[in-house]
Protein 1
Amino acid sequence: MSTPDRQSHWQNVYLSKGEQEVSWTQPDPEPSLGLIAKYAPSLTASIIDIGGGASRLVEALAGCGYRSLTVLDLSEAALQAAGQRLGAQAARVQWIAADVTKWQPSQAFDLWHDRAAFHFLVDATDRAAYLDRLKRSVKAGGHAIIATFALDGPEKCSGLPVQRYDPAELSQTIGDSFELIADQPHRHVTPWGAVQSFQFSVLRRR
Ligand SMILES: C[S@@+](CC[C@H](N)C(=O)[O-])C[C@H]1O[C@@H](n2cnc3c(N)ncnc32)[C@H](O)[C@@H]1O
């Protein structure tokens, strides 16, 4: 899928559907929040949420006192929705409307978080472009938390095919510049009560 096609797909989703009409909505962004608190405990840690969309993670992190927050997403509408909920605090967040596979990072982060964005990259060239950004953007000793549908999770999300992973396969795909240090399964319940099987992997940048 080209960047303009992807961008219009996601922009359309966020312009036409409310929070309770998309499967990935979570009232409480767990286990992300707990994992971030564990692996980036300093409130000065620089954190980027890749494909953060309109998720409540950024407001939860701001509420915990994290001060260096960046959210990247293809959809400006999603970023605006997340920003509106944050109110005045939104001005302290860096918002980046971009395709992660084309983005040129200008800083390195202590923690990279991605819940349900990487798994849309079903094309090897796109995955390589993502992994190039991942390697360039995480400081040595920093962490990446990457959540995807697990092997027994759905084959599609938002009408698009996804690549499902278990932690070992994800780690192999990411390569040896990161070490898999923890993983956990997660059963996400959609707003309409369906259960989706995710895996959350924590990787440390060597
Ligand atoms: C399933 S939603 C998950 C949103 C959010 N991470 C959450 O947990 O609520 C996937 C998000 O990834 C974004 N996305 C998909 N492909 C992307 C890409 N290539 N670059 C940046 N964002 C992307 C979409 O716009 C969407 O907001």
Protein 2
Amino acid sequence: MKLALTINGGRHEVDVPPNATLLSVLRDDLGLTGTRYGCGRGQCGACFVIADSRAVASCLLTADQAARMQITTVEGLARGEELHPLQRAFVEEDAMQCGYCTSGMLISAAALLARDSEPDEVAIRDALAGNLCRCGVYGRVIRAVKRAASS
Ligand code: FES
Ligand code: FES
């Protein structure tokens, strides 16, 4: 089926099977590989994108559903050469080890800061509850989100 997706502010026309997930379209059709495949079942957060204003699992969203939403991927967080404050804070706090979970963490945190610019630690933990990190860098991630929120 032919669809027009709005991703990172740009329009992308694709021709995909009816049940194609947004994740597969992002990675395989559009080359936006910052969004990661983890579990494929909505349980790890590696594939999160912002759909309208919410962080959602792109492995569970069909491309057809996504065509009715504004999608932001991790590639859409920076403004040209200028990193998003969260991206800077993740670097400054060394909030990653292998980095596999990082784009999903950034997406959840960006959705949080867009609706609450001064979240407390409970709100940060709640916003990141759907993002798993096999390297266990949760403490550094939380520090990075606090740093970005105070910048
Ligand atoms: S790959 Fe989508 S939540 Fe794990
Ligand atoms: S930094 Fe390795 S999975 Fe999170």
